[in-house]
Amino acid sequence: MLSSMLKHHQEEMKGRNETQEKLKKEAVQAANELTQNLVEHLNINVATAYLNQKRLDAEAKNLNVAANNFAKQTQQWLALIDNFSSALKELGDVENWSKTIEKDMNSITAALEIAYKIERE
Asked: What residue spans carry the region label Disordered (predicted)?
């Protein structure tokens, strides 16, 4: 009787151990699948962030090139405006010079006319 109880108990324990081992394997497999799914989900987000970062870097480079080109063009415009301003100043100087010459010539002409009139009389 005792030996039969012992055998019965050992068979029950063996069945429980097999059941526990089976459940343990299922739990490990489920944990692995969960981990794999979580990693895949995170990898998708990381990949998206990486692609967005690459696009931002490319756009930043393009913006930098455009800004440099704009700065060069602005420098050229400033040089043209400076040249134009200098030319206008020179024209103003020429105009002033010509007005001074004209005024002097008018004075000389008036003096010559007066001298001519005096000489004729």
From this structure: 1-27
Sign for the CA dihedral angle at 56, 62, 64, 67 comes to negative
Placement of tokens 């097999």 in the chain: 18
pLDDT in tens, 90-100: 877 778 888 88
Q: Report the predicted TM-score, pTM, of the whole model to 2 decimal places.
A: 0.48
* CA–CA distance, 48 with 30 (Å, rounded to integer): 27
Q: Residue 31 is encoded by which pair of tokens?
A: 């944990």
String of DSSP letters for 2-56: HHHHHHHHHHHHHHHHHHHHHHHHHHHHHHHHHHHHHHHHHHHHHHHHHHHHHHH
The whole-angstrom separation of Cα 105 and Cα 109 is: 6
Helix (H) or strand (E) segment spanning residue 109: helix 2-120
| Alpha-carbon span 107 to 65, nearest angstrom | 63
